[in-house]
Specification:
Layout (H helix, E strand, L loop, with lengths): L5 H4 L2 H21 L2 E2 L2 E2 H12 L1 H13 L5 H23 L4 H12 L4 H10 L3 H24 L24 H11 L7 H14 L2 H17 L3 H21 L3 E2 L7 E2 L1 H10 L3 H7 L3 H22 L3 H6 L14 H4 L9 H35 L3 H13 L8 H15 L34
Antiparallel strand pairs: 1-2, 3-4
Length: 454
């Protein structure tokens, strides 16, 4: 690929992608609510992508459906997933379910479209993520540190007392683990990035999202091995252990930010983590841990109730009730049952509860197609960030609303699309530049291979 000039390097596509990634990861729910219902910043960003390069997106998307390219298998899986989601939207509205909730549900399918602009960015600016990860780690680390230590005390962040309509100035930063995984994958020597890494480690522990902890713990050794940086893994373990040890020795503790409850201290963090496995042991470490284990128990009961309801009949098991179905009525907690909480915080239970086993199968098909293409990209480039982000996102989604909410799904699919580009094969050489004026890459019609066959 020829080097883009300055104007191409700062074209609208890069700007839109940067704003969305930084905004969602650094300020999650508050950034996601920019705009007016039902058109928020995510929908505006997608429209902006489509308006900026409609021909190129058409060639990537529809072109991959009509002829064999590196993305044909993925394109068909995503296409069927979106069409099925639209059918479930119509079924739900036809059944008389809440239209607003139904429209919120369909984003689960629609947000996969962000793969397309991501691929286009990756084809023309292959160093985009590598350039992005350093500033992201610094900015997210600083904002997250202020969120944990200052913004909470000033009353600027979301709390459990807020209604769903109330959106504060700052919301939970969700990019700590992604920033650290990116540093490990893109930076050979973490010592040069010790400060932003430590900041993000502190933020990850401070916001107390156990799903994020688990995703990071699963992926970090994989990222180190795939990147050939096993020493990085040891350094990461040392840094995190050092943070907890310093907190234990100094008896450091501050109020937990936002919606998490409790306090931030080494003992409280260990207790919260252990509560997911052994409530009895967690209670010995920290008496407050008993409350943390209840979060898991009532969600498990909710999942069981939703699964049982979906599988009552054959048609219900296959198709589900449709989008907009009031799953909150099956929540065992009376107070939560009065709130229209549309996500059970488990992506598979979410898909099953609304769209049945067919919906689950299509979601799994999309993820498997993504994995195959990401593996092809890794084999071509040697860069493991895409694979690691995919694994992290799936683990996270099993215990959160990561795939159903814009602050999780949009940066996830957008960055995965960028990571897919190296595995595109020779067909990428015939894709016109984003500005649509001159050929950025030489058009060389060579034999193509579908990554799904790898």
């Amino acid at each position: 690929m020829s080097n883009p000039d300055h104007s191409e390097r700062w074209n609208p596509y890069r700007l839109i992608a940067s704003v969305l990634i930084f905004g969602y990861l650094c300020n999650s729910r508050s950034f996601a609510h920019l705009g007016a219902a039902p058109i928020y910043i995510g929908e505006l960003g997608l429209f902006a992508f489509l308006a900026t390069a409609p021909n190129q997106l058409f060639r990537l998307g529809v072109g991959s459906l009509l002829r064999r390219t590196a993305f044909t298998g993925l394109a068909w899986c995503v296409g069927l997933f979106i069409v099925y989601g639209l059918l479930e939207l119509l079924r739900g509205i036809g059944a008389g379910f809440d239209k607003g909730v139904a429209l919120q549900n369909i984003v689960f399918n629609v947000y996969t479209l962000f793969l397309l602009p991501g691929i286009l960015i990756g084809l023309h600016f292959p160093d985009f993520l590598e350039r992005l990860i350093g500033p992201l780690a610094w900015i997210h680390g600083i904002i997250g540190f202020l969120f944990v230590t200052l913004f909470t005390r000033l009353g600027w962040v979301d709390t459990f007392a807020d209604s769903q309509e109330v959106v504060r100035l700052f919301s939970t930063p969700y990019g700590s683990a992604i920033s650290m995984i990116g540093l490990i994958c893109f930076r050979k020597d973490l010592r040069r990035y010790a400060i932003p890494f430590l900041l993000n480690a502190f933020v990850m522990l401070g916001v107390q999202l156990r799903a994020e902890w688990l995703g990071f713990a699963v992926v970090i050794p994989i990222a180190s091995v795939l990147s050939g940086q096993t020493r990085q893994f040891l350094r990461v373990c040392l840094l995190l252990g050092l943070l907890l040890l310093v907190g234990l020795i100094t008896n450091f503790h501050i109020a937990s930010p936002g919606r998490r409850g409790g306090e931030i201290s080494s003992r409280a963090l260990v207790g919260r983590a252990v509560a997911a496995v052994s409530p009895e042991l967690a209670a010995q470490i920290n008496p407050q841990s008993a409350e943390f284990s209840k979060t898991i128990s009532w969600r498990k009961e909710w999942w069981k109730s939703l699964i049982a309801h979906t599988n009552k009949t054959f048609s219900g098991a296959m198709l589900g009730p449709g989008y907009g179905f009031p799953i909150w009525e099956y929540n065992p907690l009376e107070n939560f049952g009065k709130i229209k909480n549309r996500t059970p915080h488990n992506v598979l239970v979410y898909a099953l509860s609304y769209t049945g086993w067919i919906g689950v199968a299509l979601f799994v098909a999309v993820q498997l197609a993504l994995f195959r293409c990401l593996w092809a990209s890794f084999r071509t480039s040697g860069q493991a960030f895409g694979l690691c982000l995919w694994g992290y996102g799936l683990v996270y989604a099993m215990f959160s609303n990561y795939m159903e909410a814009p602050f999780g799904a949009i940066p996830f699919y957008l960055m995965l699309g960028i990571s897919l580009a190296p595995g595109s094969g020779s067909r990428a050489n015939s894709v016109p530049p984003i500005d649509g004026t001159t050929t950025l890459l030489e058009d060389t019609p060579q034999h193509e291979t579908d990554c799904t066959e790898l």
